[in-house]
Write a structure and sequence with these properties.
By secondary structure, the chain is of the alpha+beta class. It has 15 helices and 18 strands. The protein has three domains: 87 residues, Uridine Diphospho-n-acetylenolpyruvylglucosamine Reductase, domain 2 (2-Layer Sandwich); 112 residues, Uridine Diphospho-n-acetylenolpyruvylglucosamine Reductase, domain 3, CATH 3.30.465.10; 207 residues, 3-Layer(aba) Sandwich (Vanillyl-alcohol Oxidase, Chain A, domain 3). Helix content is 29%, strand content 23%. It starts with a helix and ends in a 16-residue tail after the last helix. The model has no long low-confidence stretch (mean pLDDT 97). The structure holds flavin-adenine dinucleotide (FAD). The site of flavin-adenine dinucleotide has 34 residues, from strand 3, helix 5 and strand 10.
Length: 460
């Protein structure tokens, strides 16, 4: 049967818009954050609720169509779209309900962190989430998820209480510690392999609404000195501090001196979510290093959560290469700074995020997400606009990664993977966890319908 005819059968059971080639919205609807990924789905099914998700999953299975699932469309590898298949797009599903008494929230699968923070902060509450407000809660949480509050309260997936899933057979299940506990273990790090998450329930925590945060920066020439200082200064630092450093090109913003604008720089970005006076004391040593770039203040937490939005707008070409470091040795710093100096695009950055704290206090086997013992996670994020510059920018991210390999733990974070092959996905979990994930996958998705992701094939 021609696709147009089968689509009529879908539209009989589907309430949201079905966007197909030729529709005015199609060009926009097929796009994802990473412009390097340019695919043409047969239909973008913009779901309005779980019933639409069920209809879309059933339709895809009955017509044997490839399925891409999209929350916030921020997959680094651009997994939220596909050629000739169906995109199950949850971006219209943006409902949230905070219960202040239990300090929990239920949020639908299309919510972004900006929306999540706005609704939860209205009650003075928050859960650890991504540091760019346009990122989806769904993909980020299912792969693990870390942000400014992670050292204090754990990964986003550590704060999950339950997830509502539509499975490959069109069934709806709830998973939590009590119901379907195996599946609940798997979705906390195993990504979108097990079904479409229509909503998430999180434990929240009192945060802010005012935190101490901001950005400090120095010329690239000071990078080795600043990073060695940062390494020592962050040892034993309280968990209220979320902090990262990044090699960037300094933006032309008012708090950047003219002489440093558009020049390579090393920046420290932080969010202190505890007592403000204590935070000022904790941060004093960094400020004593007289950062010429400085924008540090008591800020609304929601502002902190969007402070990096302009660094990573949708629509640029992007390629990522990441890993973990057990520590930031002098040799690792020298290697990183050497490659950073050669960056071909002013939009690119290479970040080093401090892990530890609450992340490391969760037992390795409690969630599918593993590798909780790395001290830093590094990520070279190439971003560029001219497609003809692709090779040079991909090569730079790889070179940064390769330069740090001698110091890396070998760990992999699925949410930072580009298109890197099945071995790298398996390496994110290790043999034992990967085998357990594959067994669970075989139970809920034996035909691997949900395979356009960082895929865990079903066990045979
Ligand atoms: C600008 C930017 C900033 C980022 N910042 C952070 C950060 O601070 N911390 C961090 O940990 N990561 C961060 N990431 C990485 C991020 O975790 C991943 O890109 C994540 O996949 C984004 O989720 P999404 O829903 O926006 O993406 P999507 O592209 O919509 O989804 C990615 C994948 O997740 C799965 N998925 C999405 N929605 C669902 C659903 N409802 N049900 C089932 N599966 C689903 C699918 O497999 C899909 O292919 C960032 C990424 C970008 C581009």
């Amino acid at each position: 049967m021609a696709l147009a005819e089968t689509l009529e059968s879908l539209s009989a059971t589907f309430r949201g818009p079905l966007v197909t080639p030729g529709d005015p919205d199609y060009e926009q609807a097929r796009r994802v954050w990473n412009a390097m990924v340019d695919r043409r789905p047969a239909v973008v099914a913009r779901c309005t609720g779980p019933a639409d998700v069920v209809a879309a999953v059933n339709y895809a299975r009955e017509n044997d169509l490839p399925i891409a699932v999209r929350g916030g469309a921020h997959s680094a590898a651009g997994k939220g779209t596909c050629d000739d298949g169906i995109v199950i797009d949850l971006s219209l599903m943006r409902g949230t309900r905070v219960d202040p008494a239990s300090q929990t929230v239920r949020a639908q699968g299309g919510v972004t962190w900006g929306q999540f923070d706005r609704e939860t902060q209205a009650f003075g509450l928050a859960a650890p989430g991504g540091v760019v407000s346009t990122t989806g809660i769904a993909g980020l949480t299912l792969g693990g998820g870390f942000g400014w509050l992670t050292r204090r309260f754990g990964l986003s997936c550590d704060n999950l209480l339950s997830v509502d899933l539509v499975t490959a057979d069109g069934g709806q299940v709830v998973c939590s510690e009590i119901e379907n506990p195996d599946l609940f273990w798997a979705v906390r790090g195993g990504g979108g392999n097990f079904g479409v998450a229509t909503s998430f329930e999180y434990q929240l925590h009192p945060v802010g609404p005012i935190i101490l945060g901001g950005i400090m920066g120095w010329p690239l020439a000071q990078a080795t000195e600043i990073l060695a200082f940062h390494r020592e200064q962050t040892r034993g630092v309280p968990d209220e501090l979320g902090i990262s450093t990044a090699f960037v090109t300094a933006p032309p913003l008012p708090f950047v001196p003219d002489s440093l604008q558009l020049q390579p720089a090393i920046v420290v970005i932080f969010c202190w979510s505890g007592d403000l006076d204590e935070g000022r004391e904790v941060m004093r040593p960094w400020l004593d290093h007289a950062p010429p770039i400085q924008m540090v203040d008591a800020l609304p937490y929601t502002f902190m959560q969007s402070i990096q939005d302009d660094l990573a707008p949708a629509g640029r070409h992007s390629y990522w290469k990441a890993g973990y470091l057990a520590d930031l040795t002098d040799d690792a710093i020298a290697a990183a700074a050497g490659v950073a100096a050669k960056v071909p695009s002013p939009f690119s950055l290479a970040e080093l995020v401090l892990f530890g704290g609450a992340v490391a206090r969760v037992a390795e086997n409690e969630t599918a997400f593993g590798q909780r013992d790395g001290r830093f996670i590094f990520n070279a994020i190439s971003m560029w606009e001219d497609p003809s510059a692709t090779d040079a920018n991909v090569a730079w991210a790889r070179e940064f990664h390769d330069a740090l390999q001698p110091f890396a733990t070998g760990g992999v974070y699925v949410n930072f993977l580009s298109e890197e092959g099945p071995e790298r996905v398996a390496a994110a979990y290790g043999d034992e966890k990967f085998a357990r994930l594959a067994r669970i996958k075989a139970e809920v998705d034996p035909d691997n319908r949900f395979r356009l992701n960082q895929n865990i094939p079903p066990a045979k």
